[in-house]
Structure formats: C-alpha cells, structure tokens
Amino acid sequence: MRQGGAATPLRVAVIIGSTREGRLGDVIGRWFAELAGKRDELDVAVVDLAEFDFPVRYPDRATEPMTDFTAEVDRAEAFVVVTPEYNRSFPASLKQAVDFAYDEWRTKPVAFVSYGHGSGGLYAVEGLRTVFTELHTVTLRNAVSINLFDSGGDDVLDVDAATEERRDRDASVLLDQLGWWGLGLREARAARPYIC
After folding, report:
1. How far apart are CA 116 and CA 173, in angstroms?
2. I need a labelling partner for 108 at 20 to 30 A (CA). Which of 101, 132, 145, 188 fits?
3. Phi and psi at residue 180, in whole multiples of 5°?
4. What pTM, to 2 d.p., does this model score?
5. Is the dihedral of CA 192, 75, 180, 130 positive or negative?
C-alpha cells in the first residue's frame, strides 16, 4: 500500500505480556516502543495486558475487554511480544490473551523481546514460538534478550556501554527484519487469500 508515493507505515503492536505487580515488562516494553517509534516506516502502539480486565474463566461469549484486545491484534500488521521468563516459560496472562484471538494473528510476523535472570528469557521465547507457529504467524529468528543480572541497581535498562550497544544493535536488527517481513506479508495478503 502506498500513500502519496511512500509506503503506508507498518502497524506494529508491542504487546507487554506480564501483568504481575512489580513487573519490569512495562519499562522494557515502553523502552522498545519508543525505540521503534523513531522509525518513520513503523506506526507503533503499545498493548499492555495489564490494562485489560480479562475474565478469570473463558466465558461462553467474549467480553468487551476480550473483543477490544482481539481488535488490537486484528488492526496490527506485525507484533513485538515483550515477555518475562517465569519458571522456564512465559506468563499465563500472555497465553490467555494470545488464545482470545485466532484468525487475527494469521500471516503476520511476530518478534520477541524477552527478559529474565541468566537466560534472558530465551526459554519463554522458545515456548512462544511453538504457540505462534500454530496460529500461522511467522516468528522472527532474531530477538532482543535482556539478562537482568546485567543491570545496575533498580533500573533494568541501566547497563554498561558494551551491553547497551549489543542490546541496541539487537533491537535494530529485529526492527529491520520485522519491517521486511511485515511489508512482505502485507503484500502477500493483498495479492492472494491465505489457505490453511
């Protein structure tokens, strides 16, 4: 799609997957969204799961927060999932939200920004790749992984210069790949229907 000779910006949803009290996901997610928002080719929205009042049990009919979340997924053309690692996996709040949508995820790229102690959240990402493959998405190979042991003090983003440089380089590569896949899949969806 072109608008005045330039490609329409790719609509990217940065999904903050943790809803725990005292979480770090909001700080990390908003840092990443701010970084992504500096790119003219991206239209970035933060989708914070803590702002949705999801039901405890899956109801017979979707509630308004469920349909609001699903509408955000439908509107987006690409996703960056910000996830912690809890007990070598991703949080239940994230799985619950992912399951509220189905067709809305299809044929869109999904990238990951993970965080945790030691592994940097990579076990959570590996589990999420399986979930998103089932939803007919394209998960990106490269990710941003934040090892919480690297931070200095209370600020998770306060790291030494070498760690900051690596993290920013990883984020730049991720955003380059997300843009490539997002635009390519946008064109493919416009050219032919997806059959699954």
Report:
1. 21
2. 145
3. -65, -50
4. 0.93
5. negative
Give the pLDDT confidence of 43-56 residue by residue, as tens digits. 999 999 999 999 99
Instruction: Report whether 144 contacts 83 (CB < 8 A).
Output: no
Q: CA 142 to CA 3: how far, in whole Å?
A: 30
What per-residue confidence (pLDDT) applies to 6? 55
According to DSSP, the residues that pair with 43 across neighbouring strands are: 11
d(CA 76, CA 121): 24
Helices 92-100/122-134 angle, 10° precision: 20
Nearest Cα residue to 117 out of 157, 143, 85, 83: 85
Contacts of residue 193, defined as CB under 8 A and 6 or more positions apart, other chains included, come to: none
What is the DSSP code string of 84-131? E-BTTB--HHHHHHHHH-SGGGTT-EEEEEEEESSSTTHHHHHHHHHH
Alpha carbon of 179 to those of 35, 54, 90, 93, 166: distances in Å? 14, 30, 25, 27, 20
Could you tell me the pLDDT band of residue 159, with boundaries at 50, 70 and 90? confident
| The pair of three-digit structure tokens given for residue 156, joined into one six-digit string | 């998770």
Q: What angle do CA 25, 65, 73 make, to 5 degrees?
A: 65
Whether 154 has a pLDDT exceeding 70, the answer reads no
Nearest in space to 146 (alpha carbons), one of 138, 156, 136, 155: 156
Rounded to the nearest 5 degrees, what angle is found at the Cα of 142, between the Cα atoms of 140 and 147?
Answer: 125
pLDDT of residue 152: 65
